[in-house]
Amino acid sequence: MAEKKQPIQKLLIANRGEIAVRVIRACRELGIVPVAVYSEVDRFSRHVLEAAEAVALGGAAPAESYLNIERIVEAARRTGCQAIHPGYGFLAENPDFARACREAGLLFIGPPPESMALVGDKLKARHTVQQAGVPLVPGREVQDADPARLQEIAEEIGFPVLIKAAAGGGGKGMRVVRQAGELASAVAAARREARAAFGNDTVYLEKYIEKPRHVEIQVLADAHGNVVHLFERECSVQRRHQKIVEESPSPALDPQLRQQMGETACRVMQSVGYINAGTVEFLLDEQKNFYFLEVNARIQVEHPVTEMVTGVDLVHQQIAIAQGASLPFRQEQVRQYGHAIECRIYAEDPANNFFPSVGKLLLVREPSGPGIRCDSGIYSGWEVTHHYDPILSKLITWDVDRQGALARMKSALANYVLLGIENPVSFLQALIEHPAFQAGNLHTHFLEEHFSDWQPPVPEEQLPLGMLAAALQERQMRRQVKTGEPAVPTPWQALGRWEMLHRDERSGEN
Ligand code: ADP
User: What is the per-residue pLDDT across 207-221, written as a single tens digit (0 to 9) for each?
Assistant: First the structure.
C-alpha cells in the first residue's frame, strides 16, 4: 500500500510557456501556491507573471536554467515547496531528475524513476511489453555495423525499414531506408546523430509502415494498482514526425477497436510498473492493425482534447496520484462525450518548411467562447526567442460531434489575432477546411501529400488594416519601453483589432 502523503501547499513548476501556465492554473484551483522558475530571457514571460513567486535560474541556455537539476531543486527548497511538476520536455522524462527530487524530499509529479527509465529506453520498453503480449512493429536491435549482417536483418524485417534511436525522442535520429545499398551509411549516420542528441548510440531497425495513423491512448494509474484509460487521441497530422493537430475520438476507430486499444494500453502500463498520467502511442496501419510505438512518461502537449471529451482534469489527477490518492473513478465510469480538436500554434512559418520565427508579438488576441479553450503562454509585446521549443499556445474546440468541433475551430482560428511573427493560423484554417481532413482521411504523411507547397492567401483589402494595427501596436510598445511599464495587454486590445483602429482614429489615443 502506498503511504498517504501530506497535502501539497506549494509546488514548483520546472518548465515555461503554455504548460507552465496550465499547471499554475491547476495549482490555483487546488489551493496550492504555484512557484515559477525562469531563465534570464523569460523574466517577463507569462508563466512568471502568473505565478505567486518566481525564481531566476540563470542564463538562457537550457543547461543553465530549465535543464539544471541542481538549481531547480535548490529553488524548490528555498521557496518551501513540497512538490515539483516537470511539465513536458526539458527534465520531464529524466529519471535522474525524478530521483534528485525524491532524494531532496520533494514529491515529483510523475511516474517513479524506475518505470520512467524503463520506458525511456525504447528497446527495453519493446522487450517488456512484448512479454505482456502487446503487438509490436516488427523490429530488431542493431549490434554490429557489418553491412552483410545489417542487410540480413533488414531483409528479415522487410524493406522499407526505419532506423530509430533507443533513447530517441522528438523525432530525432529517425531515418527511412528503402534499399539495401543505403543501409550501412544510414545506420552510421543515425548512430552519430543519436550519440550527439542523447549520449547513447544504440539504434534499432523497425518495419517502416507506409501511411500509418498515429493513435495514442491516455492512461491514468494510481499507486494502489488501479489503471484506467481515457480513450484515444489521433495525432496523425505531423511535420517532421512532430504533431500539429490532434483530436479525440479518432475518426478511424470503432467501439471494438477502441476498447481493444484501451485495454492493451492499460496492459502496457501495468507491465512497466507505471504510476501517474502517461500515454501509450500506437501506429495503426491501413488494415487497422495496431502496433505499440512507445510510452510517453509525462503529461502530453495534446492532453486538453482528452480533458474536453472526458471532463477529467489530467493535471489535477497527476497531483492527486502523486499524493497517494486512489483514482476517483473506475474504467466503466469514464465516458468519451462529443468531439475535441487541438491546433498547435507554433512560432514558425508553414510557407517556409515550418522554419522557426522569432521576434516581438505586436498584437495577440485569443479567441474564447462556448466550447473554445486556449492554453496560451503569450501576450502582446512579449518577445519570442530562438532558445526554446517554438510552441506558443494551443487552441482547442469541442462540440457534440466532429463537424461541430471543426466548424468551431474554423471560426476560432478566424478570431485568433497574432501579429508580429510568422505563425500557422491561416495554414491551420486551410487544413481544417481541406476535404480530406474534413472526411477524416488522415495519415502521418497528410501534410506532405496535401500541403507541401502551401502559400498563405493574401486578402488584399485586409493587408493595410493589418499593417496599420501592427504599426499602432509597435508605437505603443515603444512608449511602454520608454516609460518602463510592463508590456501587458491594454483595454484597447481587448476591444478587438478593427474596433481599436476606429477608436484610435477618432480619439488620437492608443
Ligand atoms: P519520437 O519519440 O522521436 O517522437 P516515435 O517513436 O514516437 O518517436 O515516432 C514519432 C513518429 O514517427 C510517429 O508518430 C510516426 O509518424 C513516425 N514513425 C515512428 N515509427 C514508425 C514506423 N515504424 N513506421 C512509420 N512511421 C513511424
Answer: 999 999 999 999 999
CA of 444 to the centre of ligand 1 (A): 9
- Kindly report, residue by residue over 341-383, the tens digit of the pLDDT: 999 999 999 999 999 999 999 999 999 999 999 999 999 999 9
**Which CATH code is given to the segment(s) 340-437+446-510?**
3.30.470.20
**Is 191 assigned a catalytic role?**
no
Among candidates 115, 107, 114, 116, which has minimal Cα distance to 3? 107
pTM: 0.90
Give the Cβ contact number of residue 322 at 10 Å: 24
Give me ligand 1 centre to Cα 206, in Å: 10
C-alpha R_g of the chain: 23
**Is the distance from CB of 284 to CB of 126 less than 8 angstroms?**
no
Q: Is 168 helix (H, G, I), strand (E, B) or coil?
A: coil
- Our CA angle for 56, 57, 61, nearest 5°, is 125
CB of residue 420 inside a 6 A radius of ligand 1? no
- What is the domain class of 10-109 according to CATH? alpha beta
CATH level 3 topology of 138-207: Dna Ligase; domain 1 (3.30.1490)
From the list 369, 358, 168, 194, the residue with the least C-alpha distance to 281 is 168
